[in-house]
Amino acid sequence: MKTAQLLLAVLLTCTPVQAAVGSAPAPALAQPPFFRGDGYPAWSQMTPANAVAATQAAIMESEQRLAAIAALRPAEYTFENTFLACYKADENLRQVQGYLYHLSNVVASPAWQQALGRMHSIVAMHKSSSHAAEQVWATLQAAAQAPFMQQLSAEQRLFVQRMLTDLRHRGLELPREKRAELAAIELELRQLGSQFSSNTQAASKRWQLVITDRWALQGMPEPWLKQAAAAAQAQGLGTERQPAWLITPATAGDVVRCCGVEETRHRCWLGATSAGTALSGADNEPIIARTMELRHQLATLLGYRHYADMMAADRMMGNAERALAFVDDLLTRSKPAWDAYVAEKLKRHSRLHGSKLTAIPPWNETYVDAMLPPRQHGSHAAAITPYLPAEHVISELMKLWGDILGLHFEKLPTACLKPGVPCPADTVETWHPSVQCFAVYDTATHRHLGSFYTDLYPRPGKRSQAWSMPLQFGEGDAPHLVALMANLSPPPADADRPHLLTHADLYLLAHEFGHVLHLLLAHPELRAQGAMGAERDFLEFPSHLVESWVWEPAALARLTRHYATGEPLPHHLAELLAADRRHSLIAPHMQLLCAAKLDLELNMHWQEKFRGRSLDVAAAELLAPWQMPYTQPTPCAMRTMLHCMSEGYAAALYTYKWCEVMAADVHARFQRDGILNPATGAALRHAIFDKGGSRPAAAMFRDFMGRAPQPDALMKRYQPTNL
Ligand SMILES: [Zn+2]
Predict the structure, then answer these.
(1) Residue range(s) defining the domain that contains residue 259
(2) Are residues 18 and 167 in the same domain?
(3) CA 543, 548, 550, 556 torsion-angle sign
(4) How far is the CA of 467 from the centre of ligand 1 (A)?
(5) How far is the CA of 508 from the centre of ligand 1 (A)?
(6) What's the CATH code of the domain at 368?
(7) Both 493 and 624 in a single domain?
(8) pLDDT per position as a tens digit, 236-272
(9) Are 285 and 639 in contact (CB under 8 A)?
């Protein structure tokens, strides 16, 4: 989450200090572990109860600081006591929220989830009064015209500009009754968002299919059948002698890919795609329609043409038209590769079918692909895995990027402690015994830039997927602290067997490591302008950049080492890996582009193109030139796309492709200069990584590349000759 958004959440929550102090008992003193400080957090001292107390204390502290800003006389205005003070007003609240989010994601305890919910409701409760917010807004508006503004540096001016845009988006410029209208819209949007999410999740749990005829599952592997039979028995279905097999949304994809009986594949495909449709009993279409109406009302209330324009205002794109033009341009450029891919697919299906097909049943697509020879469908992963012992891969990834960017990494001693047990000297406390911690130093100056925890393997109660989380932003030269979270292939239960990662693990790890580098290296003058202060449509650039190296032969030669022989990955396997990638790129590329186009069009042109029409029909019409020709219509992907219903990613799916364009462009410069070239690495660090969000991303990109981003390098990956 953008730090500025947290600031605004609090700014709007303010009640006058006198009323807050006088009318309610003072909350318990905040517990030190939750408030920012130097050094590593004392995780064992953090509890759900003191997290709630710390939230209350942080809100009170924020109110007092905002009241002090509102009480300033115009002659007293400076950058530090107005805009900067406004940012600093809720530093402790941001810190508490950050730790709370983190712990609720990594610790298996309902108490942490409850504490998170409590924190949300405490913050929401304070939103009901906005006296201090109004006063602070008036002060900031007056300060924006004050003489000190003429003396500000470019970084400070950018900071002021972004803060004022954020505050306007929160409605502070509106009269009080319009602000109430805005608050009501925001509340309904949040309710719709959670209804959408629970519909989607409930549907994925509700659907199941019980098969009692073994013939209907021919082609399914024995271990899969055993698991499906055990799942059925757990529900009291089938017996040892007369087994039944239970298929759930989690296993339906296996059936669609492997089962030799078309009718079973068809039934599973219908079930798996029913989420968010009327068939599932929880239709998301009315929720999407109402959301689009409300977003339009909200955007026009704030003076924008539509919601997509409002969301793009503080991004690199600047407006929605530019974002849509970018997506349309990529769709046009990708069309020849896509048409070649579709023609090839129809040819293969026709060959197996025995007659020329112009469309294929969607439930046959992956089944037919899986019947192709391994060369064409990316089954080399198993051959590569023995070359990826976990410890070697992780330490080499750091060394590799250390050499490119001029950094070195040091593993620190760690301990996971019980509450009340003191932490040994020179030891970093962690929240789980498997968590490690690394310090990052500048090789030339030996300056400690930051440290990061790695929590890489799944365990009960830990959130799925992979993510990176900033935990502390150091002021000035003070180091930052970040957590790199993932769910990679876990160590084997048998300690004698090697702990190996897959290439997909390496790719995920590299992606998150890109985020970590971006978060740790930025040390701008203003803490608020760290990496998370950059435009949202730039934040995936570092991660996409670093992940590009996991297909580079020169990088693979260092990252891989056979667990038994010590040999690096043979050249022919690196080639096959690259071929797998080329073959598998175009379909997800087009899926994402189509989703990004639909996402933008919905938020820009709801009234003209979608209102009163079937979402499935309108979306199919819009995206027809770039869709696989299927024998029957498929439900619109937006019905289950949680991203598009969240505030952060609404009208912003394009950012993934935009960041890919920038990353491929920069990667191509490295390919020209040398993939491990430290001079190019130093230039990249100086122009982009070190700056964080203190300079507009477009200017940082231009500093490094000497021009604006161009899509040619990315498009080269999809050329039909490469398929
Ligand atoms: Zn990412």
Answers:
(1) 208-273
(2) yes
(3) negative
(4) 7
(5) 9
(6) 1.10.1370.10
(7) no
(8) 998 888 889 999 888 888 899 889 999 999 999 988 8
(9) yes
Closest CA to 301 of 132, 185, 192, 134: 185
396-420 pLDDT, tens digit per residue, is 999 999 999 999 999 999 999 998 8
Find the mean pLDDT for residues 612-625. 95
pLDDT attached to residue 27 = 34
Query: Is pLDDT at 688 greater than 50 in this prediction?
Result: yes
Is the pTM value of this prediction over 0.90? no
> Which uninterrupted H or E stretch holds 157?
helix 154-169
> Could you give the number of structural domains in the chain?
4
Residue 673 has pLDDT above 80, yes or no: yes
Task: Give which of 548, 547, 531 is closest to 697, Cα–Cα.
Answer: 531
In the predicted model, what is the mean pLDDT of residues 577-588? 82
- One-letter amino acid at 668 equals A
Residues within 5 A (CB) of ion ligand 1: 543
In a domain, 291, yes or no: no
Q: Are strands 480-485 and 448-455 parallel, antiparallel or unpaired?
A: parallel
What is the DSSP code (8-state) at residue 190?
Answer: H
Helices H / strands E in the chain, number of each: 28, 9
**pLDDT score recorded for residue 612:** 94
Q: Amino acid letter at 592?
A: L
CA pair distance 604, 380, nearest whole angstrom: 43
- Kindly give the distance from the C-alpha atom of residue 513 to the centroid of ligand 1, in angstroms, as a whole number: 9
Contact between 668 and 509 (Cβ < 8 Å): no
**If you search the block for the tokens 């006063």, which residue do you land on?**
135
Same domain, 449 and 376: no
Sign of CA dihedral 461, 393, 549, 719: negative
> How far apart are alpha carbons 476 and 526 in whole angstroms?
7
Count of all residues that appear for the chain in the document: 723
Alpha-helix runs per DSSP H in 361-487:
365-370, 381-384, 390-405
Residue type, 377: H
Pairing between β-strand 436-442 and β-strand 428-430 as defined by DSSP bridges: unpaired
Distance 287 CA to ligand 1 centre (A): 28
Quote the CA–CA distance of 11 and 18 in Å, as a whole number.
16
Q: 541: CA distance to ligand 1 center in Å?
A: 8
Question: Which tens digits make up the pLDDT trace of 310-367?
Answer: 999 999 999 999 999 999 999 999 999 999 999 988 998 888 788 899 999 999 888 8
